[in-house]
Design goal:
This protein is mainly β. It contains no helices and 11 strands.
C-alpha cells in the first residue's frame, strides 16, 4: 500500500520548464514501478513516462521524448518529472502512479495506486 502526493505544477509560458515531484509513503517504495500520466479536459488519460524499480530503465511517450525526463530517488521515496520546452498542448493535470510489479507498463489500468494530480498550464 502506498499513498502518492504530486507537487510542482503551475502556470508557465511556452518554452519554460517545471519539475514535478511525487512523494510516496511506505517502506516498500523501491518495489514499485512508477509512472506519470496526464489528462487534459475532454481527453482520456494518457501515458507520459515510466521508470523501473531501480531507475535503470525509462520509457516515454513519443509526444514528450527528448523534452521530459523521469527519475527516482528510492532513498527519498520520490519520483520526479522534469518537463522542458513546454508547449500549450502539454497543459493537463499530471498524475503520479505506482504499480506493484517488476514490469514497466504504459496503460493506466495496469497501475494500482494514484495521486490526486497537479495542474500544469502552459500559455502561448
Amino acid at each position: 500500500q502506498v499513498q502518492l502526493v504530486e507537487s510542482g505544477g503551475g502556470l508557465v509560458q511556452a518554452g519554460g520548464s517545471l519539475r514535478l515531484s511525487c512523494a510516496a509513503s511506505g517502506r516498500t517504495f523501491s518495489s514499485y514501478v512508477m509512472g506519470w500520466f496526464r489528462q487534459a479536459p475532454g481527453k482520456e488519460r494518457e501515458f507520459v513516462a515510466a521508470i523501473s524499480r531501480g531507475g535503470g530503465s525509462t520509457y516515454y511517450a513519443d509526444s514528450v521524448k527528448g523534452r521530459f525526463t523521469i527519475s527516482r530517488d528510492n532513498a527519498r521515496n520520490t519520483v520526479y518529472l522534469q518537463t522542458n520546452s513546454l508547449k500549450p498542448e502539454d497543459t493537463a493535470v499530471y498524475y503520479c502512479a505506482a504499480r506493484a510489479s517488476v514490469l514497466v507498463v504504459t496503460r493506466p489500468r495496469e497501475y494500482d495506486y494514484w495521486g490526486q494530480g497537479t495542474q500544469v498550464t502552459v500559455s502561448s
